[in-house]
Amino acid sequence: MLPANVDRFLRGTVRSVWELELLLLLRRQRARLWTADELVRDLRASVLIVGDSLDALQKVGLVSRSANDQYQYWPVTPELDHLVDDGWDVTGKAEDVDDVGGLGEIGQ
Hints:
This protein is mainly α. 53% of the residues lie in helices and 8% in strands. It contains five helices and three strands, in the order ααβααββα. The protein has a three-stranded antiparallel beta sheet with strand order 1-3-2.
């Protein structure tokens, strides 16, 4: 079960499991700069899903976009980083996320 503050954060911030998978992939490799095409390939997702998810995560301050159209996990505050870390600590890996705390229902 997710801590209440992490559950509220995810439900209020992340609109879909795809978005959560993208966030956790970027978080796992924080130092890496990704192109949208690389993310599409790694997630086996559509260009539309990845593009929409990147836009949404940028708007909430979790992802940064470089001048070269590369993306990186870059929370704008330490508090956001801690919330994502706390969610990661509970789930242990992205594959478990949709089974923890009802997150599979995000966006439904």
